[in-house]
Amino acid sequence: MYTIEITTKHPVAEKQQQLLEQSVRDADPAAGCQIHDTSCKISGSSTEPAKLSYLLGLAAGSYAAGEILRLLLIYEKA
């Protein structure tokens, strides 16, 4: 089980939001991706470290380094 949360300085652009949501669906069809204003939350039940690493890189890489105010990763291996 995992959750990736990112808070940014500026609202997420519509095109960026669509690309991120589609990329998350492609990587993990069971994952949820919620984007609201300046926050993004990706969560799912996969425990595969490779998939989690890819999603974390995808999420963090979607923003310029100076844009990210907060990055939170929660991972639980049941």
Describe the structure.
There is one protein chain. With 78 residues, this protein is of the alpha+beta class. Helices cover 35% and strands 33% of the residues. The protein is built from two helices and four strands; from the N terminus they run E-H-E-E-H-E. Helix 1 runs antiparallel to helix 2. It is globular.
What is the helix tally? 2
Please indicate the percent range of residues in DSSP E strands (runs of 2 or more).
25-35%
Give the SSE string.
EHEEHE
Contiguous uncertain segments of 5+ residues: none
**Approximate shape:** globular
What's the main sheet like? 4 strands, antiparallel
- Helical percentage: 25-40%
Number of strands: 4
Query: What order do the strands of the largest sheet run in, or round the barrel if closed?
Result: 2-3-1-4
Output the structural class.
alpha+beta
Terminal Cα span: 8 Å
CA gyration radius, whole angstroms: 12 Å
Mean pLDDT: 89
Key structural traits:
78 residues; 4-stranded antiparallel beta sheet; alpha+beta; 4 strands; 35% helix
Summarize the structure.
With 78 residues, the protein is α+β, with helices and mostly antiparallel strands. It has two helices and four strands, in the order E-H-E-E-H-E. Helix 1 runs antiparallel to helix 2 (49-61).
Secondary structure elements and their pairing?
Layout: E1 2-8, H1 14-27, E2 32-36, E3 39-44, H2 49-61, E4 68-75
